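Example record for the data management plan.
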Amino acid sequence: EEYLQAIRLIKKGVALSGEREADGRYLLMLARSSFMTGFYGMQRIYAMVSAVKPAEGFLDIDDLRFSAIVHIQNGREDRGLEMLRSRGRVSDTVEGQLLLASAYCIARRYTNAIVEYQRIMNRTSDSRVQKLIHINLGKIYFNQALYSQSLNHFTDALGIDERDNQLKVWIGKNYSALGDKIKAKAIWSEVLAADGTNEEVKKLLGHM
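Corresponding structural encoding:
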């Protein structure tokens, strides 16, 4: 609701000023608010971001990172990734490295994403970050039909958080893809016993 309120106020301000568009500072606010709410589509958001001159619009590192991601999501992968690597301070913190790895995933540069995730894994012992990396690597390998590698990562993630039933769903998907329907059914049934409202698991079991 606050993002929508920001959109309404910025649009009202532009109308009252008689300008065709907000200046760089507010245009970027409008773009970010629209991104978070889906108020405008990605093409319109990209047009707004592209109209902002860095000197007037990039107020902080988050603005630059946001702009880079918008570029990547609109097919300007090389430009967006260059922005992140050169000015996004993505090597300074684990958070920055995670952003870069995610950007590589969005750009479908999966080999680069895997390398980044492995670097982060070696850098931190934070169990939450380790779990997130295992999940993301598991999804990358699954989408590339590398089911054994995917299974290993989701199993490692489950070792960190045994209460996360969604990890068991993915483990079952890997067992199923590997041809082990018995193990897939067993782990999905375990999830359904713990959460009888899980529609995804019901559908997966129904297709067996």
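Summary line stored alongside the record: The first helix runs from residue 2 to 17.
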